[in-house]
Amino acid sequence: MGLRPWLVLLPPLLLVGLFSVYPFAFAVYASTRRWLLTRPDTPFVGLGNYLAVLGSEQIRASALTSVTFVALTVPPIMLLGFGAALLLNQPLRGMGLLRAIILLPWAIPLVAAGVIWRLLVHGNFGALNGLLLQLGLIDSYIPWLSNPSLALIAVAIAQVWREFPLATILLLAGLQTIPAELHEAARIDGAGAVARLRHVTLPLLRPSILVVLVYESMTAVVVFDLVYVLTGGGPGSATTLFSWYAYAASFKFLNLGQGAALSLLMALALLLLIVLYLRVLPSEEVE
Amino acid sequence: MSASPRRLASQAILYLLALLLAVFILAPFAWVLSASLQPEHAIFKQPPDWIPQPASLDNYVYVFTGKIPSRSDLSSGLTAGITGDAIFIPSGLRNSIAVAMVVMALNLVFGTTAAYTFARERFRGRAVAFNFILGSRLLPAMAVAIPIYTILRVTGLLDTRIGLILVHGAFTLPFSIWVLTLYFRSLPREIEEAALVDGCDRLAALRYVVVPIAAPGLAAVAAFSFLFSYDEFLFAQLSLSSIELKTVPVVLAAIAVNPDATYTLIAVGVVLAVIAPILLALLLRRYLVSGLVASLEK
Fold first, then answer.
1. What is the Cα–Cα distance from A251 to B145, expressed in whole angstroms?
2. Mean pLDDT of B129-145
3. Which of A44, B37, B68, B88 has the fewest CB atoms in 10 Å of its CB?
4. Burial level of B291, CB count in 10 A (0-12/13-18/19+)?
5. Would you state the pLDDT for residue A286?
6. DSSP codes joined into one string, chain A
7. CB B214: neighbour CB atoms within 10 A?
8. d(CA B231, CA A109)
9. How is residue B258 annotated by DSSP?
10. Is the pLDDT of residue B75 over 50?
């Protein structure tokens, strides 16, 4: 006993500590200074960066874009994930094949997923345009990514394609823990498929739904790679999400103080998101 | 069971939905594969040829050997040049796989020993250490990107594989330790106690008794840490500046955001980049799924 457990834990503790404690402390420190990489001095400004950031029109716009992005991606991910999970839970021949391929969009690098969709929605040759043209739905190719109102939707579609498999897998695992007898009993009591879904499946699946909701909302808030390869935050600021703005502040505008303040605000937003869901959701769905 | 018309109809609908789902998942891959086998001018046809006519490996030959495709698009005036950076895709793949393998090994060794210690040993500060490791993951990568960059620069690890491996290790170990601790706790103690009575020490018990039983958990951790490292973009992009060290997401992103890119070569890059993760996801699917479920549901 005594020291030995600590000797075993030392390497992982050191590694994890090095890349979390110091960076966190540094971020807090940097967020209280006016720190521009283009200037030699870094004077203390207290909460100045936070106030500047919170008062800025661009930040508010980017926060709103992030909220829109969450609203555009999380409901489709939940619905598609749930639908696919119900489908995969059917005892049909051949479903094993679908279960095997469903993980693919999630397993590939996010950058690759983004590039795939960049090629799909490209304005000059994209497959999506080709398909819509052949189906007679459009007369000429649409430049998805250079149209401010379509670009965010294009990023959202890529995000849904990438993320719904995870929702499916988790919800499917939840579905499989529901005892078949419960459905049987409800059926004998005269409950139809819709009633069973509402009164048996959904209430019992609540913990899984909650986990997926929280996880996918967080993923939508921190999304970065997809924006990087699809739009670079543009056109204009149409896809400048909060996470992209935090990146741009530090790495494009070289304003480390504001970048740190933004990143910490983002961490705070994530924590609030978790707390919010945990508080709001139970009361709504238990009945 | 008799196959009533109603039952058949509902089965037909289910299969139709399954087909639609499969198309939604696979069609993007199929289109990129098709584009990678076509000459550049062909994909600009409106609408495009869905199936290459004829398929050609010229783009792949260029990426691996630097030999410019014979049906040159330069003469058609569609592109000003050819995306030369595409020839760094093969080295990107090698770098990604090398880094990801080491990250995976780090996770298997330190993840297993740490998780086993958390699951079985009793010592002061255990809960604190455990929560500290897990809590480190609450920080979004973006919040710690600059200080981590600074650490790498000060320690001389910037633009090295080791630097990237350490960062990936720090980001994957908490998850691995978490999953494996849950896993080890679910194994019956009696098995190892028998080994301990027979004169094994803790490490030997871990090596010869626990690890073989815990193989599914280890497979999950191996798959996750490999995929995380192979897929990771932000830190790879920030820390690697030498072209010969860049990992495949970095190379791919660089050629994809170039406005004057050769699209069929980008398609080749995507196809090559997704082979390893797709094989891994298909082979280790069972373990990935059980690991995901165990970690997120707790």
1. 10
2. 84
3. A44
4. buried
5. 38
6. -TTHHHHHHHHHHHHHHHTTHHHHHHHHHHHTB--BTTSS---B-TTHHHHHHHH-HHHHHHHHHHHHHHHHHHHHHHHHHHHHHHHHTS--TTHHHHHHHTTHHHHS-HHHHHHHHHHHT-TTT-HHHHHHHHTTS-SS---GGGSHHHHHHHHHHHHHHHHHHHHHHHHHHHHHTS-HHHHHHHHHTT--HHHHIIIIIHHHHHHHHHHHHHHHHHHHHH--HHHHHHTTT-STTTT--HHHHHHHHHHTS-BHHHHHHHHHHHHHHHHHHHHHHHHHHHHHH--
7. 21
8. 4
9. -
10. no
Give the pLDDT band of residue A283 (cuts 50, 70, 90): very low
Which residue out of A4, A6, A9 would a mutagenesis test of the B interface target, given it has the greatest number of B Cβ atoms within 10 Å? A9
Tell me the chain B residues in contact with residue A124 when contact means C-beta distances shorter than 8 Å. Answer: 44
Give B 113-132 residues with CB within 8 A of chain A.
113-114, 117, 121, 123, 126, 129, 132
Residues A214/A273, Cβ–Cβ less than 8 Å:
yes
Q: Which of B22, B48, B248 sits opposite A127 (nearest CB)?
A: B48
A58 interfaces chain B, CB cutoff of 8 Å? no
Yes or no, beta carbons of B47 and A130 under 8 Å apart = yes
The rounded distance, in Å, linking the Cα atoms of B110 and A154 is 41
Most confident range, picked from A143-157, B128-142, B201-215? A143-157
Bridge partner residues of A33 (DSSP): A44
Q: Mind listing the domains of chain A with CATH numbers?
A: 57-285 (1.10.3720.10)
- Minimum mean pLDDT range among A36-45, A99-108, B4-13: A36-45
Q: Which pLDDT belongs to residue B211?
A: 81
Check if B52 contacts A (Cβ < 8 Å): no
Across A106-132, b (16+ Cβ under 10 Å) vs e yields: bbbbbbbbbbbbbbbbbeebbbbbbbb
Decide if pLDDT at B244 tops 70.
yes
Q: How sure is the predictor about B270, in pLDDT bands with cuts at 50, 70 and 90?
A: very high
Query: Given this model, what pLDDT does residue A274 score?
Result: 76
pLDDT at A284 over 70: no
The whole-angstrom separation of Cα B214 and Cα A75 is: 37
Inform me whether the pLDDT recorded for B156 exceeds 80.
yes
Averaged pLDDT for residues A265-285: 72
Facing residue for A119 by CB, picked from B14, B267, B273: B267
Pairs of CB atoms within 8 A across A/B: 265
Nearest to B11 among A92, A99, A222 (CB): A92
With CA atoms as reference, the chain A residue closest to B278 would be A104
B133 contacts in A (CB within 8 Å)? 12-13, 16
